[in-house]
Structures are given as structure tokens and as C-alpha cells.
Amino acid sequence: MLVRYLDRDIIGTDREVEAENGNWVSRRLILADDKVGFSYNDTIIRAGTETFIHYQNHIEAVYCVGGNGEIHDINNDVTYPIRDGMMYLLNDPAADKHYLRGGSEDMRLICVFNPPLTGREVHDENGVYPALSLDD
């Protein structure tokens, strides 16, 4: 059994990763080195921000547990409001280009990635998390 506490084991460690532009902070509770086949993040999207994302190497399931914002599906030109209790799945790496926008308050998202993140990923200039291995 693995037990971690956000306040004691994650915040303030190398498992807490902040975007260079300050748009988000990702607290990475389960990573590739835990060897369970997925990663599990508690992510805060800051109010009033916009981030372009295109996960070419990962599938991501996202569940909102607080705050508000929206996701804009670029390929279909559709915007979906995000609020507590909303889930979305990015399951087509070739097509899931999107803008993630923070709303009037910080938004808290629980995110599951496959393949799992190693913990060092940040979005590159194309909105992509690179496909890293534990050896990188």
C-alpha cells in the first residue's frame, strides 16, 4: 500500500511542478516510478489564465473538484464550461488540441495520465508534454 499526504509529502517538494508562466501548479501524487501504469495529479489552474495544450504522447482524464473555467476544443470550435463535478477525457492525441482557461476563481482538477508522467514534464512551445522515461 502507498499512502501520501498532499500537504506533507507533495507540496514544497520536486513533486510540485509550477508552469513557468504561473498559469498552473501540478502536485504529482503518483508517478511512473510508482510502477502502477498511470500518474495521478492534483492540479490548480489559476483564475483568468489561458494555456494551450496538445497532449501528443498521453491520454488524460480530468475531473473538476472545485472552482471554474472552461476548455475550448480547437478542432471542433466548441467551448465547454468546467465546474465542480465535470469530467472530460482527452483520448485522441492527434486531435485533442485545446485551450484550458481558468475562470473567476482558481480551478482544482484531478488528472490521470497514461502513460504515466515521470514528474518533470512541463508543456513545451507546442503545448506538448514530452514522452519521458525514468531514464531521461
UniProtKB/TrEMBL annotation:
<dbReference type="Pfam" id="PF06339">
    <property type="entry name" value="Ectoine_synth"/>
</dbReference>
<dbReference type="GO" id="GO:0033990">
    <property type="term" value="F:ectoine synthase activity"/>
</dbReference>
<comment type="pathway">
    <text>Amine and polyamine biosynthesis; ectoine biosynthesis; L-ectoine from L-aspartate 4-semialdehyde: step 3/3.</text>
</comment>
<comment type="similarity">
    <text>Belongs to the ectoine synthase family.</text>
</comment>
<dbReference type="GO" id="GO:0019491">
    <property type="term" value="P:ectoine biosynthetic process"/>
</dbReference>
<dbReference type="InterPro" id="IPR010462">
    <property type="entry name" value="Ectoine_synth"/>
</dbReference>
<dbReference type="InterPro" id="IPR014710">
    <property type="entry name" value="RmlC-like_jellyroll"/>
</dbReference>
<keyword id="KW-0456">Lyase</keyword>
<comment type="function">
    <text>Catalyzes the circularization of gamma-N-acetyl-alpha,gamma-diaminobutyric acid (ADABA) to ectoine (1,4,5,6-tetrahydro-2-methyl-4-pyrimidine carboxylic acid), which is an excellent osmoprotectant.</text>
</comment>
<protein>
    <recommendedName>
        <fullName>L-ectoine synthase</fullName>
        <ecNumber>4.2.1.108</ecNumber>
    </recommendedName>
</protein>
<dbReference type="InterPro" id="IPR011051">
    <property type="entry name" value="RmlC_Cupin_sf"/>
</dbReference>
